[in-house]
Amino acid sequence: CTILKKTEGKYFFSSPLSVISNCQFRSKTARLKTFTANQIDEVKDPSGLFYILPFQKGYLVNWDVQRKVWDHLFGKEMYKVDFADTDIIITEPYFNFSSIQESMNEILFEEYQFQAALRVNTGALSAHKYFQENPSELCCLVVDSGYSFTHIVPYCRGKKQKEGIVRINVGGKLLTNHLKEIISYRQLHVMDETHVINQVKEDVCYVSQNFYKDMETAQLKGEENSIMRDYVLPDFSTIKKGFCKPLEEMVLSGKYKTGEQILRLTNERFAIPEILLHPSDIGIQEMGIPESIVYSVQNLPEEMQPHFFKNIVLTGGNTLFSGYRDRVYSEVRSLTPTDYDVSVSMPENPVTYCWEGGKLMSENADFEHMVVTREDYEENGHSICEDKFDI
C-alpha cells in the first residue's frame, strides 16, 4: 500500500486508479524479458509465468525487485513523482525487523529523497477508516487476510493492543499452491501455472456454510451434484481468460467435442478456502481465523472484550470468497459467550479499505506531526523514525 501526497494538499491518487502486483514476472515464451507490476498485461502467453517476489513470508527481502517496482510506479511509466515536494505513506508488516526498517528509511529519504514519510501497519489504516465511519465506537478488531498471512489485530482509541495481535501463516499464496497440488494429483499437471490456477481459485472457490453437507453433495452423481463445475482453461490464443461453463452447457460425461481443455472441480471449490478457517485440515498446526479472533479478544482486559466482538472488520483479498463473512460470523458466534453481541462487517471493497484509511489519515490536521521529514531524518537518522513510528 503506497499513498502519495503533494505539499499543496492535492493527491496524485484521489482514489485507487488500479491495484498492481508488487513483483516482477518472466514468461516461458519471453524468458529474456522481465515484466514489472502492471506490465503483466503485456504478456501474450502467461502460461508458466515465473514470479519474482520482493517479499517472502510477508517480509521485504529482495530490495532490487522492490526498487524496480517503485521506479516503475514513481517514474515516467506511470505517475511522474516530484519526490522533493511529495509525502509518502507506506505500509509494513507488524513486528517488522529493524534492519528492514532502516533500509526502508534510507531508500525513501536518501535514494528517492521524499519530503516526508510515514511507515505504518495496514491494520492501523483500516482501523482509522473504521473509526471515521463509526465515530461512536472506541474499539475494533481488524482481520487482515492477504497473500502471505492473516493478522488479527485489536485497536482501541486508534492504538493497537499488542497483547492481542495474532498472526496465522495462511494466506492466498498457500491456497493457490494447495489447489495446484490437488489438481496436479487428480487431473492435470499445473504446478508451473500459478497465474492460471490463481484465477481458477478466484473464479470458482467459495466458503461453505456447512462443510460436511457440501462434501456429501460433492460425492453425488449427475445433476444431483450441484457443486460440480467445469472450468475452461485459457489457451491464450482463442481463449484469453479462463471461465466457468454455464450449468446448462455442462456435459456430465466430461467429454467435450470443442477441443476445450476442461478442469472438473467438485469439493476443491470449498475445501481450499476451508484452510483459512481450519488450517489443521492439511496439517498446519495453527488456529483458524474464527478461533484466532476469539483467542485475540480473550487476551485483552475482560471489560473491553464485548466492544471488540461487536466491531470485527474483515479486510484483505481473501475476504472476496463468497460466503466468507457469514461463515466467520457463525463460527465466532458459536465460540463466544451468549451474553456478548457479535458483529462482523466487511467493507464494500476490502482490498482497498486500507488505502482509503491512509488517504483519510493524510487529510488529518495532525498528519504533519505523524510523519518524519527529510530534514528530521538527516539531522537525527534512524532514531527519529523509531520514536515516531509505532510499528
Automatic annotation (TrEMBL):
GO terms for cellular component: cytoskeleton; nucleus. Keywords: Cytoplasm, Cytoskeleton, Nucleus. It comes from the Eukaryota. Pfam families: Actin. Its main location: cytoplasm. The keyword Nucleus applies. It is found in: Cytoplasm, Cytoskeleton; Nucleus. InterPro entries: Actin, ATPase_NBD. Belongs to the actin family. ARP6 subfamily. This is Actin-related protein 6. The gene is ACTR6.
